[in-house]
Inverse folding.
């Protein structure tokens, strides 16, 4: 007992109240505005507390330095940030702290000056009062079974109205205790609060002699596999009562003490957390602690809450880049993916509009390429710089080339982990404030036993590494990936549904990306079929379609944006070098113009062929009072009746009539009291997806009845 009092006196007298500490303490104990509780000592006659309420806000600085001892209300108009239970009995610290840690490791035992206990549970975000009261009632029942009448149910907050005195007044013993029953300094208390939902880390606070190196080893595993950030080890060590040497910390970080051994996997960590906690605390913890080791606490938010004001989506570039998210650029080799990524990075940095998309929040950009060196990327960026006219806002664009051979993740048969290079990269992103991170190609950014067709591995790659990379740094991640070469564009130059599934490998990649852009070169077949009349033969091979394949935040366009690979010359030390960049075209406008003209002609021609169309019409089983037939049936008969059949082959003429019917009947026409129109049924299970329909005017104009 005497030793504990000495330790307590030492910790409470050594508190330094810098502005950061005061700010952090204020964030933990958020209470009602413009009202606080005051504790003004003990009445020497009655031995009762002199406490009252003041119409002033909580002042953390004056509280901590002992000038004004204060408290506050748990219940506010916003909800509550903390809950409290009162044990009205001087239970020994070691006994109580063990019991509470096994009940709920996120509950903080704080001893009152009289030796009794206040149990605090804190929340990062405001918890609605109805939810807080349910949690408080559930914990109260558990505590009542343990402490019986010694649990003062009249002081459970926020079940009851009232305020509670706050801890860590200078010179008092109103402080938090660790799971072993030892007092914690203010700094250690704040540290435990930061890791309150991580029992293993929270339990280590205050360690002194014996077990620190073992604890640091388990902390390293936890930081690697759960927290995903090894830099937490420094903070953990600083909050030991007696920190270990820096060289020992380096064994787990710089030296990769455990990272080099595949035995120390995530699964190994989860299997042994109970053992680690027993080594740290000196007692076997409840099984539930291990089970919840990597699981975040459930957060539930009431929607349509008048006290919450949503903010706009954090787009950095309209439609193409969103903060904290991953954009996927999928295209086959030769589709200008690298140029597209480089131009996107340049526009992000410079603030220039990127093919009609405004840059809303410019910043520094980093391109990581496994296929190009510095010189090649320098040539491309200088060519792009010529097109846009320079970066004038002070931002910069950097590159990591193939000579680094950067690998972010090391996959083994049953596990995966960050590489040392990944930690180094994260530090570089922090130091240089990169807000755009481009990876080209994605498949080259890992090593080990990785299979791009393995959904769990691809899901882990995206959700455990790439997306957190964006979230941690408030950045946009844009990755290039190869396609499986299936068609993305269908008849009429329209985007096919296949565009969403064109990315090669596991579907988890497309699922994880919030935005998917397809890049597809124009083929000769597509040119001859759809674009021959508006694109020259020597030009089509230089065209690339930009396709909106997926966007979780906006509607998709139904036509591709066609860009032209144009050659510009870049000045070099030894002459000039031709470099390809992308430029906009007016192909879609030309196609729309020709389509309007061809539709008028086609509608006149179709009126001549209505008897043949009618001869093929049969009752449609899916639509009442409607007849239909396949487009191919009609086009084939018209081709065989065409007098040119002797000079042209049937296939060519059939295709010509297919286009005529599709163009003219894209919009329905009325003839002799009947409507005729064309539809493409993309969901049809048979090959008959192109159909012509006929319906009498009366049925057609009748409102649909459900």
């Amino acid at each position: 007992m005497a030793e504990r009092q000495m330790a307590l006196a030492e910790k409470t007298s050594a508190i330094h109240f810098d502005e950061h500490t005061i700010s952090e303490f204020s964030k933990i104990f958020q209470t009602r505005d413009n009202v606080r509780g005051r504790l003004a000592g003990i009445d020497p006659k009655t031995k009762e507390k002199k406490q009252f309420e003041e119409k002033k806000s909580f002042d953390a600085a004056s509280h901590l330095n002992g000038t004004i001892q204060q408290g506050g209300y748990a219940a506010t108009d916003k909800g509550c940030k903390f809950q409290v239970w009162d044990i009205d009995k001087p239970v020994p610290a070691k006994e109580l702290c063990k019991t509470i840690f096994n009940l709920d490791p996120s509950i903080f035992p704080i001893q009152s000056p009289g030796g009794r206990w206040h149990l605090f549970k804190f929340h990062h975000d405001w918890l609605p009062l109805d939810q807080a009261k349910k949690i408080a009632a559930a914990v109260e029942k558990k505590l009542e079974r343990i402490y019986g009448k010694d649990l003062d149910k009249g002081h459970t907050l926020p079940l009851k109205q009232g305020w509670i005195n706050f801890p860590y007044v200078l010179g008092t013993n109103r402080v938090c205790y660790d799971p072993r029953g030892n007092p914690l300094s203010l700094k250690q208390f704040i540290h435990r609060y930061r890791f309150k939902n991580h029992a293993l880390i929270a339990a280590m606070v205050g360690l002194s002699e014996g077990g620190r190196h073992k604890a640091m080893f388990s902390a390293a595993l936890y930081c690697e596999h759960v927290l995903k950030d090894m830099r937490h080890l420094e903070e953990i060590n600083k909050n030991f009562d007696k920190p270990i040497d820096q060289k020992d910390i380096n064994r787990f970080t710089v030296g990769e003490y455990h990272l080099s051994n595949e035995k120390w996997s995530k699964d190994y960590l989860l299997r042994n957390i109970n053992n680690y906690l027993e080594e740290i605390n000196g007692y076997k913890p409840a099984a539930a602690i291990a089970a919840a080791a990597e699981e975040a606490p459930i957060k539930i938010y009431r929607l349509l809450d008048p006290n919450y004001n949503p903010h706009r989506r954090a787009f950095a570039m309209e439609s193409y880049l969103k903060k904290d998210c991953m954009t996927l650029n999928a295209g086959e080799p030769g589709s200008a993916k690298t140029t597209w990524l480089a131009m996107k990075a340049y526009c992000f940095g410079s603030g220039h509009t990127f093919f009609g998309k405004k840059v809303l929040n410019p910043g520094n950009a980093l391109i990581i390429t496994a296929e190009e060196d510095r010189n090649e990327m320098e040539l491309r960026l200088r060519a792009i710089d010529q097109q846009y006219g320079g970066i004038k806002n002070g931002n910069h664009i950097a590159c990591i080339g193939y000579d680094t051979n950067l690998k972010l993740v090391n996959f083994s048969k049953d596990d995966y982990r960050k590489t040392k290079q990944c930690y180094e990269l994260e530090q570089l992103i922090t130091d240089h404030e990169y807000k755009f991170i481009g990876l080209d190609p994605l498949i080259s950014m890992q090593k080990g036993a990785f299979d791009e067709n393995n959904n769990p591995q691809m899901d882990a790659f995206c959700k455990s590494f790439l997306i957190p990379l964006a979230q941690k740094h408030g950045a946009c991640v844009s990755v290039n990936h190869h396609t499986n070469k299936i068609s993305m564009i269908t008849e009429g130059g329209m985007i096919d549904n296949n565009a969403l599934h064109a990315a090669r490998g596991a579907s988890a990649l497309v699922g994880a990306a919030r935005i998917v852009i397809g890049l597809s070169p124009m083929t000769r077949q597509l040119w001859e079929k759809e674009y021959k009349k508006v694109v020259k033969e020597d030009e089509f091979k230089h065209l690339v379609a930009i396709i909106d394949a997926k966007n979780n935040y906006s509607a998709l366009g139904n036509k591709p944006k066609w860009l032209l690979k144009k050659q510009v010359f870049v000045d070099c030390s030894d002459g000039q070098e031709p470099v390809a960049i992308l430029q906009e075209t007016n192909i879609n406008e030309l196609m729309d113009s020709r389509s309007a003209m061809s539709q008028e002609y086609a509608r006149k021609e179709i009126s001549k062929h209505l008897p043949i169309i009618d001869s093929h019409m049969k009752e449609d089983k899916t639509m009442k009072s409607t007849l239909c037939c396949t487009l191919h049936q009609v086009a084939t008969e018209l081709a065989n009746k065409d007098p040119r059949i002797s000079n042209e082959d049937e296939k060519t003429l059939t295709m010509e009539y297919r286009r005529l019917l599709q163009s003219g009947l894209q919009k329905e026409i009325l003839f002799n009291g009947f409507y005729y129109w064309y539809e493409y049924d993309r969901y049809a299970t048979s090959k008959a997806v192109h159909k012509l329909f006929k319906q009498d005017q009366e049925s057609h104009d009748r409102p649909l009845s459900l």
The chain has 23 helices and 28 strands.
